[in-house]
User: Fold these one by one.
Assistant:
Number 1:
Amino acid sequence: MRKIRGRGGQVTIFIIIAIVLVAAVGIYFLVRPVTTSEKIPSELQGVYSEFSVCLEDNAISGIKVLESQGGYIKLPEFVPGSEYMPFSSQLNFLGNPVPYWNYVSGNNIEYEQVPSVNLMENELEEFIEAKISNCVPESLNGEYEINADVENSDAVVSIKENEVQVNVKMDFNLKKEDSSVSVENHKIIVQSELGNLYDNAIEVYNAEQEELFLENYSVDALRLYAPVDGVEISCAPKIWFADEVFYDLENAIQDNLNSLKSSGNSNDYFVVDSIEGKISDDVYVKFMNSKNWPRTYEVNPSEGATMVAHPVGNQQGLGVLGFCYVPYHYVYDVKTPVMVQIYSEKTEEFFQFPVAVIIENNNPRVSKTGSAQVYEGAQICENKNTEFSVRTYDSNMNRVDSEIYYECFGDNCYLGESENGEFNGDVPQCVNGYFVAKAEGYKDTAVMASTINSGSMEIIMDKKYEIDVELNLDNKNYNGDALVVFENSDGSSQTLVYPSQKTAELSEGNYKISVYVYKNSNLTLGESVQEYCVEVPRTIGGSWGLKKKECFDVSVPEQLISNALAGGGKTEISFSESDLLNGGISINAESLPAPNSLNQIQDNYVLYESKNLEVEII
């Protein structure tokens, strides 16, 4: 016999179980975390939207910082430049520091600091996490109950070609009266071409590293706008002012680089072949160079502020040439920054990074092989661990405020400025390095010192005086063309192109003074043909044997010698500080015979060596 009660009992148990399951499911759906894609109660949507918009704004702000700072939010450690290399590790661009992707440090070490996509994602994650607390709304006068586990928040960023995906994991609980919601995952998608712009930036950077196209365009400007190699028919020196050459050169390089572009007519000189076709559609590349940025221009040989090329053919024994010529060869070092901007026309975003453009000995720097990679290296200037005291004085032992540097193995470390003529601080350890003191109105002074142990030293600085130079020829005032050269016993020199330059900066010391006076000779050397013969080896039976004479004619065109050496001389003199305080010197030179033939020009150079100068302090 079956008992009906028994079946009824089972049904009751199932009903109870069903009720418990329904209740459990109801509780689960009430308290479980939901994603932002799920529906937020209408009365809580405003507060949550405020939180979401704030997260999105922070993500957009972080993206803009990445794009404007070469892929960095947190800048790499700052490394200063030096007189040798003007680049620090960052370029100050409109007041905003942008890390170089490639630069050469002050001690001539090449560095790369190209960020990876992973690094950019990590930095954007940290940026968003650091600002989450600012996005959590306040309780709004107690109307809402808001709880956010900010300390345990975790942002995950994924940079795609045309968007940046952000997922912030953080418990965020909202409650208002009977409505409540708990959100754990906060997903945001920002429409941005950060990934696409970065990929194009890498293309441009790798092309520059492999082709050095920025350096090559700069070398073109150098050879077009500055004297590099050449020969001119003349018996007088060829003179350039270095500052004027550098002015023309930096303008030419700036205009050349600023005109470069990534696409256009294939015959256009300014279209960069190495990146043409590699850049995405609707993306443009702009190159920017400014002569107002840190840069250096150097030329050798030079005599102070002038570049003088001396003639050949007017020296004794060279009359056989029958003419004079001025050969010149100048070697330039150029170091200048270039900012590369990758611009998206679609979203009006731009990604930028600077690189260092370097020309050494008239040629592009030696290119590194391979693609972008981070380079790490040690620098002497970073390890300042020895206490040292440096005091600077003038020749009367008065304190001089100056900038103090320490040079060691090519590394020039800026230490700081002295106060009341005294510097106290840490310096790098080095054997037989040099402390260098620099002050306006004083000659740069270097003193050898080892800094393995703590110590102190004194530097005596010579004051520079502006001296007016008056030139006389045969005891009469002279205002014609001349060169006046001051050579200090310490190896420094300066050349005045008289009469356009009549002021020299001299300090106490021993000087060799040379004066070359040039006058219009109106000497015309007629066209001539001269025979030159040389002996060349000849073969006998397929083997080298006797020599034979071969002659050829050399045609020399007619030549007008407009200027020729017509006076001057040399002397040595010591200037004391009391001499220089007078502010002027008078130099008297003797005339040489007026040149009326090439032989006389050559004779004048012989006579010049025996001529002395008279120097008077005025």
Number 2:
Amino acid sequence: MYALCAISGILVAAATTAAFWVRFSPSEAATNLVLLWWLVPLSVTVRITTFWFLGLYKGVWYYFGVREALQLAIASVLSSVLLAAVTLLAGQHFFPETLLAVDWLLVTVVMGVERLSIRLIREGEIGSLRNGNGHRNNKKRVLIVGAGDAAESIVREMDKGTSFQAVGCVDDDARKLGRMVHQTPVLGAIDDIPGIVRRYNIEEIVIAIPSASASAMQRIVRQCQSSKVRFRTLPSLKEIIDGNASISHLREVIIEDLLGREENHLDLGHTCLYLEGESVLVTGAGGSIGSELCRQIAPLKPGLIILFDWAENSIYEIDLEMRRRFPAVRVEAVIGSIRDAAKVNQVMEHYRPGTVFHAAAHKHVPLMEVNPDEAVLNNALGTRVLADAAEKYGVQRFVFVSTDKAVSPSSVMGATKRLGEMMLQERNSSNKTRFMIVRFGNVLGSNGSVVPLFKKQIAEGRPITVTHPQMTRYFMTISEAAQLIVRASAMGMGGEVFILDMGKPVRVVDLAREMARLSGLNERDVEIRYIGVRPGEKLHEGLLAAGEELVSTYEKKIFIARPLEASTNGLAKGLDGLIELAVKRDKVGVKSKLRELVPSYQPQESYEVGEAILPSSAHSADAKMTGSPKVDERRKPATSNRSEFTVG
């Protein structure tokens, strides 16, 4: 820092001296030479002191840019004003105002050149210019997709002594063609990638468009795959905003990048203020959804997050992660089962949570078909135990994580989740606890889902197993699902079934093929084997049951399914009987009782692989939500002091 001050002092002295000789002719200079002897040290003293107090020597001049140049210009103007004030107050010597103007200009220029030189030397640009062609040996030749702010940041990073050389950029904006991103030219459009790779001997491609839509990423990836070189991408815009990655972190393209829908990112900070200082209980906290819920809740400054789960290893991992990533948030890990009333009541009494996110459940459809007793004890009994404790200990909000498989269920798992929905809707009419439900489709990458299975099969060189060529599913990312759940907790007044517009369903076989291509395989390299739809599975899932009405909310992609006017008379007594059968391990009796309690439950044993898709009439209970859902726009909020969503 002191060395920089000394260098700056010399430069200021030189600039002031030069300004003197620029302003005065040789004959005038001789007459006014006495002025120079006191003006130079005064200029150095005033300017360096001003620069010091304005913090110009605290910055890292390796990164000198527009902001730093503006800061320098302001400091130079201020120091010139102070210099003029000092000379006027002294009143002993007169000199033309133009001398001060020339002095300011030259000082600003030499100081700017000083700092820019530091950056150029640091980045090795001066050495490159001396070479005449800027070529950098032994560096991997990179093509950047995009020519915007993200690409500019990547080019800058590569110029700071990395092992990469940015050869060029591609962008579909015709106005950018032929222009430069720093010293890197825009060589063509995205469709030109394969040709540019061959022409310029590109060794790697970097996709620098964090805000790219899924369809745009699919197109870019196709061109990258055609070029037959390695390609990577910047993190998504959400990863950067959430602080999980920076713009300099490159990663492989993953299936979430190519998901055939646009992610719905919600601003939770301004809409979930009630969670600040709140004690929050998350059941199933070790699972995919539960752990992501904890990550989404932690930045909202809760007073306490209680991680509740039966899985010891999973809780251990999320507990370690939470303490590392969010050290300011108090976290308590509790091992226990939601079906254990004594344990649940002990936790509720001790921690007194204000909000419960109930994500614990048995979710594997085929496994629950052969273990219906366990499905009932965990999904139905566990939900009832939690709801009873929530009422007893004054929980304000209770958010139940449901599934599209609860809509006209064909499986035991779906039927038990639908039973949980019915149970909470019944309680809502006569209780201070706000019970609300969030219903959505499959989650990409969750434990036990198709994505990890496909990845493992591809890595091991085995055939990818798909149940049926026409099977479709709604997909969303884990973070998006967790955001919806947290957001719903703030919106809900009690009794709502929240639904996310999940776009169009995706064919599972298309998902498998896309994952194979991302792994560098083509159609000839991978075998897709159809194994038949398993018991309890449907070819197509729906998000609305027959007769349910979809109502819009002030969140563009969040809707409310107005519940069926289903009778719940005798539900509590029937549930007692169901649980008794499950405790006795009477699997046949459990399935029979489920049909009785959940009228829309119609067991589906299996499909043959070659069987045609059943007509919509065969699934009359399903109301498929594809694209933009049909919404009753006539409904208005009841009062301004309540949540703004519309209810019937």
Number 3:
Amino acid sequence: MKQAFIDIKNLKLSPLNVRKHGDKDGKDLVPSIKANGVIQSLLVRKNCEGYEVLAGQRRYNAALAVAKEQDIEPLPCLILEEGDDAAAIEASLAENIARLPMDELDQFEAFRQLSKQGRSIDDIASAFGVTDRLVKQRLALADLHPPILKAYREREDIGAGDLRLLTMATKKQQRAWWKLAQSKEEYPPFGHRLKSWLFDGDAIPVSNALFDIDSYKGAITSDLFGDEQYFSDSAKFWEHQSRAIAELAADYKDDGWPVIIHDVGQRWYKWDCVQISKEEGGEIHITCAANGEVSIHEGYLDEKLYRKRQKAEGQGDEAVQVTRPELTKPMQNYLGLHRHAAVRKELLDHQGVALRLMVAQVIASSHADSQHTQKDETTASLKSNKAEAPFKAERAEVRALLGLTGHDTQTLIRTKDEWERGLDPQDIFAKLRELDDDTVLRILTFVMAEILPSNGRFVEILGRLFATDMKDYWTPDDVFFDLFKDKEAINAALKDCAGERVADGNVSATAKVQKGVIQACLSGARKDGNKDWQPAYMSFPMGSYTQRGGIEAVKYWEDAKALFEAA
């Protein structure tokens, strides 16, 4: 005969069950089983569909009734083998179970006394005809803070479920919980809140891990009153889980799927999406619950994007952007202005280029650029760009050469209102006649730099030709990180800055956390990153971190590179 825990779905009554009359439903056992589970083992034997119950009909029927209202643990069973005497075993169990105290604390006292006498768990279980697990559950109460045990015995608002949860607490946690229970100003947590309190947030079951448990070096807490174990160190869990999620996402990407990894606990609803195939543009959405559970949603696309694409196809418009852009418009504007500032300053050292560019701009009827943005934060950030000061200094000198020092303006190229205030083109022309060719060429170069359009294709072309290094002018600031929002791109940037291991270890962390890691690398607070890191967006030509496109500056260079790569 051997002992096992068997799911109630795999049990059924045997037609040979000895109880044919009297109380067969076991309704009086329901309250006890709800509180304590099935204590005495059922007597079963194997059949073709699972196991049939030979003895324990009332316990089985009561457990069925409980299972209709709540989850129930697998039932303790003794499996008969060939040659076992079922009647003798049942009689022995009935005799032994009668000696078992009914209150779980009384059971604990009885088992503890036997344990002190040197009896093993197997010996104690055999003496009372119960399972080893039940003995372990009762002996777990020995680790409880004595006042908690006393309060439970005296029924001071501590339920059996809370008592069982507290067996998973450390001594320090138990004392802290009891202190809250005694406080007149604070209240101790109960039920689900107690589990969250014990595990510093949502308890993370071991069964939710995607990784090999052997690789986890932290503590694992076992729930003797349930079948689950829990990770004690949530930070270590998420480090391992994030790497597993990163590997999972990489496999999907290798298979040609666009993958979106949502923040832990972030809400994502299928009904906001349309389910379509990979070939039709469907995406993989990976969601992570706070308790570590990861769900894969295959072949979904945001309904708004889907409708937009449907409309574009109906109109025959293939140019409509139907994927989620890597960078928002404000971010692209921010990057464009900083890059523009750097390139136009370097244009000051390339007079021959400026002359030819001026001719091209005049032919194309270009107009002056005022570096306009609707974001005050971007305007403030632009002032810190190291290219701005020398450019403004050159503007002041050029204005002096033209005799314009008495006019208060932010640009040399005038607006319509400034012309109406008295500045006349013929006055400037007359002044230019007094200057030598080199000086005129210097002024022409500055004029070309000032009318150079920001966020335009010539910024990309000239930055490539000049091999402009943005590190000389700009470092990632708070405005950049505030505007940097795409989760996939942020994780790729983190990999670029701190390496694959750090990026994979944070793949399920929030965008804010991942950007914080990059900032810590830049400040030197972390030693495992590149403190001189620059995003791919600041290279020439501009790079990106995803394959989704939607970045205008990238497209500018792609359209122009065939003309300038040889140069």
Number 4:
Amino acid sequence: MSHRILRVNSVHYVTPWLSAYINNIIMPFTGVFFIETLGALYTDVQVQKIFPDSKYFVDCIPNGDPVAILNLYEKEKLQDGFDLKEFVTRHFILPVDMVSMYRSGNKPILQHLAALWPELTREPRVTKGGTLIPLPFQYVVPGGRFREIYYWDSYFTMLGLQVCRQVDLMQAMVDNFAYLVDSFGFIPNGNRTYYLSRSQPPFFTLMVELLAEEKGRAVLLKYLPQIEKEYAFWMDGEKNLSASGNTYRHTVQLPDGIVLNRYWDDKNTARAEAYREDSRAAAQSAEPPEIAHRHIRAACESGWDFSSRWFKDGRSIASIQTSHIIPVDLNCLLLHAEEILLELYSAAKNEQLAENFRQRITQRKTAIQQYCWHEAAGFYFDYQFIDHSSTHQFTVAAVYPLFFSIASVEQAAKVAQCIEERFLQPGGLLTTLNNTQQQWDHPNGWAPLQWMSYKGLKNYGHMALANEIKKRWMATNEKIYAATGKMMEKYDVTDAGSKAGGGEYPNQDGFGWTNGVYLAMSQE
């Protein structure tokens, strides 16, 4: 069985860069296709909600030529008694959630987590078709509706693989991400064609460092080409910025000439995997749909989809403004990439490049302090560069300068005090202080942010608070596991007996990064 790629109409893409990229780079991946190019069939399935989860249909695999299926649909839908769901089940292979079939068997939690890795591990894809982009090596998926690799999830998953001595699988994960960089020039949100217009928080250098803990620091040099390419992706267009044209893709030039970064998506339409939800949100916005969609997609690149962090009014997705924000966490991650590049260029005695990155590091450190630190609040905030002001949104992203040792001792102490007084709950740390019914807001806590907070506070000697966060978070994981036999994507940290909710889909079980962080904390 063979499938041919449907050529993407460039009207769906708003930059010449992406249109050329799709035609020249993606087209050679014979067998994958873009499900939104199924036209009326795609939109009808999404609008009519024949599946409860909008992501379900975009993960289906056509069991024939997609063009022929679309043509057949246009004819059959006019017939009396036509059943859309029956048509889809006849012409597509439906996705299966393998993890949901797994049961803990009342195993102790650590034994359960060790046994769960094979359930979450996927083999290199041989058969072709559908939106899944084949990867050359084994990889670990989060679980539930997330049937593919995810970029920033994978770092926290790898923490657990390291504890379980799954070094070969760690290597495979890093090699898959290197492959994606080599293939596309960046690491997509996930290995699906509908994720190819955005990335996720750039944790690749941290993954390589984690592997280096097992194989030696020299491992970093092996991945220098991919580290350089990914950094170039995030910095694309920086040399052409000016006072009159101060933004391009992920780069923003501030009034003092310093360049910082934002989240961005090269498309400005409703997401293929959330067509109905995005269309509804854009309709609520005062902005034109293409601007609202861009902000929504940028929030997805951040990984915090969705949160009051990105809302101008702090309450409603209708006010989403993600691409107008310079996020503190993103710029800390890119600073770390710059520090790794400096280390590698210095080791190679390339003094010209080393000096360039010394300057970049100094500039970015200074800018993070200038634009994101708020002395009166004693906290790090994101910066809204259109309004030239802090967002004043309290979020646990403020721990990133502590994780990467950017904060001063005095700043770290103030952040720690705020974290303890305002974010610490019986079950761990809140993500934000606003209860908006979005999943990255109060009352939910998430494993990656517990880990970043725990390690960041330890960096500055706040051991009691760090250990209290660890104790409460692990206890929450254990309590829910004892009750359900599952590890969850997120938790209600205000009440460990309650089920976490909010967002576009039900709480998922599996769950890669929760497993990884729990295992890593168990060894601390």
